[in-house]
Amino acid sequence: MSEPNIYVTEGRAGYWIASIPAVMGCNASGKTRDEAIANARRAFRAYIELLDARGVSVEHWKGLDPDAFTVAESDGPLFPEDQRPIEEHDLRDFLHVFEAQHAALIALASTLSADELERAPDADTWSVREALEHMMNTQTSLLSRLEKWPDDPFNTLGSLHRVVYQRFTAMEPADTKGVKVIRGRPWTVRRVMRRILEHEWEHFGHVQEIIAALGGSRKA
Question: Can you give the pTM of this predicted structure?
Answer without folding.
Answer: 0.84
